[in-house]
What we know:
Blueprint: H1 2-49, H2 52-58, H3 68-76, H4 79-96, H5 98-102, H6 106-110, H7 116-147, H8 155-182, H9 186-209, H10 227-232, H11 238-261
Helix pairs in contact: 1-3, 1-4, 1-7, 4-7, 4-8, 4-9, 7-8, 8-9, 8-11
Amino acid sequence: MFHANLIANVFRRRRNLILVYFLALSSFMYLIAATFPTVHQAGAEFMEALPPTIKNLVGDANLPFASLPGYLGLGLSHPLILVLFAAFIISSATQAVAGEIDRRTADLILSRPVSRTYVLASHLAVTLIGLFLLALATWLGVVLGAFLGLIEPDLGRLALASLGLFALFFAVAGYAYAISALTSDTARSNGLAAGLTSLFFFMHFIGNLWDRAEFLLPFTIFTYYTPGVTLEGIASPAENLIILFTVGLVLLAASFTFLNRRDIA
């Protein structure tokens, strides 16, 4: 009975957070969809008012409001989206091991007839369910806009872009769980995982901004998240998805090894 209830207990502790994030993400992406007609029109008028030399320099195709896929891609890579996903994944991973040890509940749980592997797998299952629901929320928000006749997106490509978002934070879950499995303090686990995520984002930002820092791009997970390219149909996301899922799987497997070999005290 304890085995059967463990996942349900973990889910009950996270369900309100998942619900709030689900509503926030779906609402945000609906607003992105709903504002496109206005932004697109305003952008077209702005471009029309520019002198020909400036217009040629800027290039209409390079502006996010020039096309619906570009605008939706901008929405899916918005800092609010990334912060909410990161907050959910990192907090979930921290609670899985470091949080239980910090609250002195790990010994109580492991005193029952249940293995460390099963405890970690239960937390991971809830994390992945939540991650799926949050990625689904980004898709449903745009679908609502399409249903109301505001936009006409390619829902297949949109699903692939949302899958890319899932894959990106599956990789984040990998190192967040590995860090949690190695630490015994909630604040330290949260800080290390959040710091590493911020570092990856900075590497991606500076690598795209400065030519001399381009060498950093292959080493940050954000390089392999390209919703705009996916939505535009410029390239297949398959290779990037494989890289992100592989990183996540390797690190998640390592987290189980770390937990089973460490001393919990």
